[in-house]
Design a protein that fits this description.
Elements: H1 2-13, H2 24-44, H3 53-63, E1 79-82, E2 119-122, H4 130-136, H5 144-171, H6 179-184, H7 189-195, H8 200-220, H9 239-256, H10 260-275, H11 277-284, H12 289-311, H13 329-338, H14 340-349, E3 350-351, E4 356-357, H15 360-380, H16 383-411, H17 421-438, H18 446-473, H19 482-485, H20 495-529
Antiparallel strand pairs: 1-2, 3-4
Length: 530
């Protein structure tokens, strides 16, 4: 009786739990900014200037009209898809590819201009169809170059939705003061460039970013020992919402490209290591978890079924297709390890058909911002946090080499830096999450460092965007004045309009990230005072 009376008195005297603050404005502001930046990239890049975009776009055009895979033709190496009227493919449209000093003006050659072939030999014809339905539908309402730009915009909006959700869940935790800076890295120009193209690499990247952010937050709700003290009732976002984000991200990731299921396992494994056994045990001992896990499993089974049935596994390459075809695992592994610095450069910013690197000085803007985030973890976080970040860094180094080593005999060396972007951005997200949880001694630096590092990233984005514009408008190496006096190629709306718009959107991103960090710091300081 005494215990019941004491429990009743405690419940009567307990202060009511405040309602969850709305995070919808954060989501929509982030969506508007990320979407604008990605769409500007989609307009700035000449049609098919993104690697393999011609193959992906023609597949999307054919698929939404019922030709899901295409057909084989004797003597033709790749799957053939039919292109309807208004989508004729002229090989001259890529006159500038691999020729950085040549502008994107190709003598009037355009996609769907009535000149060229009504078929395309696409090396992605048997790829998983989900991405192509998500971005290919605008081609039903327009044709030619306009259809490619429309599909790019659809891809941009899809990616912006995932990036906005990632930002929303990241800053919603009770300990999140470093997360705005960590999520600022998702707006790096190479990420937005891929999101604004017709290429499943963009959807793969966006879904992976959302999975990193949402899964770390979800696991917090199962860990009663977490420093943030988060549980389902006390979290800023409800557990079902976090589960929904994890599920959507996982299903898109595993179906974006053939290696999607492997990337899912890698990300989930690293998030489990970061969160610790109590959180993992809590997740798997909760009966409702299996509803969401079943949905993820169904998406994974569809992906594996499509791939294993011949959907997108690479065929045996010829020696002329790529370096080291037929080489051993060790040869492929060591080659990839040696090339890691080059792959890192590609991931930070190497545009076009690997023909448009940035000035060396520009890369240091990104490296400085990224390096500061990592150094803070190793300087101020707990030992376990250092080991966790070290594990993620090791995975980012070894996974590409292991994957390429395994496949080198069949495919040769085909790895590019953009394939590992999901790991490199994951490093930033995990670093911000660890600092927010385990480095209270330097919490007072979060607001200032966010403004500084995000400012470097914004400047880097504007420099990269402007450099790519120069390369396509007048050709690399041409005097900047010729952009005004004698532009050879113009994107939709004109290059100057796009550069100004990108600079304004970058300033908006900087202000949004900085003000969000300030708001979080004030919220956490207020919670401590209470």
């Amino acid at each position: 009786m005494d215990r019941r009376r004491a429990r009743r008195d405690l419940q009567l005297n307990r202060k009511p739990r405040p309602g969850r603050p709305s995070t919808a404005p954060t989501f929509w502001i982030a969506f508007a900014i990320f979407g604008t930046l990605a769409i500007l990239w989609s307009l700035a890049s000449p049609v098919f200037s993104v690697p393999d975009e011609n193959a992906h776009a023609t597949k999307a055009v054919a698929q939404v009209r019922g030709q899901v895979i295409g057909y084989t033709v004797p003597g033709v190496k790749h799957i053939v898809v039919d292109l309807p009227e208004g989508f004729e493919y002229d090989t001259n449209i890529l006159c500038f590819a691999t020729q950085p000093t040549r502008s994107a003006e190709c003598g009037g050659a355009e996609f769907g201009a009535g000149v060229g072939t009504s078929t395309f030999n696409t090396w992605v014809g048997a790829y998983n169809p989900i991405y192509y339905y998500l971005v290919g539908w605008p081609s039903l309402f327009t044709d030619g170059n306009a259809a490619v730009y429309a599909m790019r915009i659809a891809s941009s909006l899809l990616g912006a939705l995932m990036l906005a959700a990632a930002f929303q869940v990241s800053v919603a935790g009770k300990r999140a003061r470093w997360m705005p800076l960590a999520l600022a890295f998702v707006a790096a120009p190479m990420n937005l460039y891929l999101l604004g193209s017709v290429n499943p690499n963009g959807a793969e990247l966006g879904s992976a970013i959302l999975l990193w952010a949402a899964l770390l937050r979800l696991l917090e709700t199962f860990d009663r020992r977490a420093p943030s003290g988060v549980d389902d009732e006390g979290a800023t976002l409800p557990r079902w919402y976090l589960w929904a984000m994890v599920t959507v991200a996982s299903v898109i990731l595993v179906n974006a490209r053939a290696l999607g299921p492997l990337w899912l396992v890698v990300i989930v494994g690293l998030c489990f290591i970061a969160s610790g056994w109590p959180a993992v045990r809590g997740l798997f001992t909760n009966g409702r978890s299996y509803i969401w896990l079943s949905a993820i499993a169904l998406g994974g089974l569809f992906s594996l079924g499509w791939t294993l049935s011949g959907g997108s596994l690479s065929n045996q390459a010829e020696p002329s297709d790529a370096p080291l075809v037929g080489a051993t695992f060790l040869q492929g592994f060591l080659y990839t390890v040696r090339m890691t610095p080059h792959f890192l450069q590609q991931a930070i910013g190497y545009f076009g058909w690997l023909d448009t690197p940035l000035p060396v000085a520009a890369y240091w803007l990104f490296v400085a911002a990224f390096g500061v985030l990592l150094l803070l973890v190793f300087a101020a976080a707990r030992r376990r946090s250092m080991l966790v970040l070290g594990s993620v860094l090791l995975a980012a180094f070894l996974v590409p080499a292991l994957v390429q080593g395994y496949s080198v005999g069949q495919t040769g060396i085909i790895w590019q830096g953009r394939y590992a972007l999901f790991l490199y951005i994951g490093i930033a997200i995990v670093a911000g999450w660890l600092l927010s949880r385990d480095a209270p001694r330097i919490g007072f630096l979060a607001r200032r460092m966010t403004w500084v590092a995000a400012g470097l990233l914004a400047l880097y984005g504007v420099v990269a965007f402007t450099h790519v514009m120069v390369r396509y408008v007048v050709g690399e190496g041409a005097a900047l004045s010729t952009m005004f006096s004698a532009p050879q190629w113009q994107p939709p709306l004109g290059w100057l309009t796009l550069v100004i718009a990108y600079a304004v959107a970058s300033l908006a991103l900087l202000a949004f990230v900085g003000l969000t960090a300030r708001s979080i710091v004030r919220r956490e300081e207020s919670a401590v005072d209470d």
